[in-house]
Structure formats: C-alpha cells, structure tokens
Amino acid sequence: MRGVHEVAAVGFDASAEAYERGRPGYPREAVDAMARELRIGPGAAVLELAAGTGKFTRLLVGTGARIVAVEPVEGMRREFVRLVPGVPVLAGTAEAVPLRDGSMDAAVVAQAFHWFDGAAALSELHRVLRPSCRLGVVWNVRDEGSPLTVELTELLDRYRYGVPQHRDLRWRAVFEETTLFTSLESASFPFEQRLTREGYLDRAMSVSFMATLSGAEQARARDELLALIPVDAETVVLPYRTDLHWCERLDP
Questions:
Q1: Which member of 3, 24, 180, 236 has the lowest number of beta carbons within 10 Å of its beta carbon?
Q2: Which CATH number covers residue 40?
Q3: Residues spanned by the domain of 120
Q4: CA distance linking residue 112 with residue 166, whole number of Å
C-alpha cells in the first residue's frame, strides 16, 4: 500500500477541481473569530499552510493582512493561482516551510493538520512565527446528527484503508506534548452546505483516497453515494460545524 502522504499528494492533485467545486467554505463568523484570536488585521504577515485551492484564504483577504500561502500539491496550487489572484502561493510542506525565521505574525492551517508530521510541523511553525504570535487550526466537520451524514461517513470509511483523519483526534497529541506552544483553545460554529447532485458527488469523490480509486471503483462508489439520496433530489444539504483551535508561540 502507498504511504499516506503519497495518497494525499496523488489524490488531491487528481481531484483539485472537484475539491474546489464540492468542498464547503467557512461561515463568516468562524473566520472573523479566527482573525480576532490570531490578531490578523491590516498589514499583519499571515502564513496559510497547506492552503489547498484557497477556500479559507479568500475569506482572510478582506482582513487587510499580507497573506503568504504554502501548498505542496501542484494541482491545488494551479487552482489557487486562478482563484486567489494577488496572494502568493509557494511550493512547500509543513515540515519544510519556505519562509525566513520570525517572518510571520500568525499562521493558519485549514483541513490539513492531520496529514502532517505533527512534531516537525510545530517546530517549523515555531521557527517562522515571531515571539508571542499565534497558530490557528481549522476544520469543517460533518455533523453526525444527520442520517445522511452518518451513512456518508460509513460509506467513506469503507474506502479509507488507514488514511489519517481528523475525527480520530490523533492530531491533538502533539499539541498536548509540545513545549513550543500554549494549550489549545477552541470554539465551534454550525452551518450547512447546500449542494446539487453533482456537487454532492464532487464533495465525496474529492476526498484524497476516493480520488485515487480505480475507474471501476470510482463508478461503484458514485452509485453507492447516489443510493443514499432520493432519486429526485435536486439539492443535498449536509450539516457541518466549523471547529477552531488556536494556541500561542512560547519561548522554550
């Protein structure tokens, strides 16, 4: 079996356009809360790590901050350049951030920290942040109170094969052990994503491990996904919550 980072790179490169079409954005109040907690405002230098197609970035642009995006996957960077003109996007990883020491006033990671080597990523984030600056971690999490969401999660889990995920909370361990940052603080904001039938398929098939399935497996998975919704459904509603977590850089 391929390594999980290879699954991520291959899957996200193949599904960058579907990712943009199908993945949810973020509620304005969550973005405003993260900007407030991270002290993001006019002129602040902000790193967005693993920025993807720029879904979170676009909502930060209005803060007046000077944003620098870092994204390892070429297909995602192509979409980012098309969709977020004026914000530089660099090739790089969480474990090797291509920025100078102490050059950033804040850092944000949306939908990605579970893919990182957590200890190496925190070490790099500590290096590029100035003293007493903050790191924010953001996730859109499907609300399992909905029968459709429960069935969708069960279906995706059948194809996961050990690929890292947010909800097992393993990513939190490094924050509990680190001496580089303070303990995490958290807040949550509910919202809904309204999708067309095609958008619903894009949402599921843009998951990294789904995008790397063979053609026959993808066709079967699409049939299984459509079986979860009414045949005449024109709109699919997926409930979410946006979880925010933040901490502050320490001087060990």
A1: 3
A2: 3.40.50.150
A3: 4-143+167-193+239-248
A4: 8
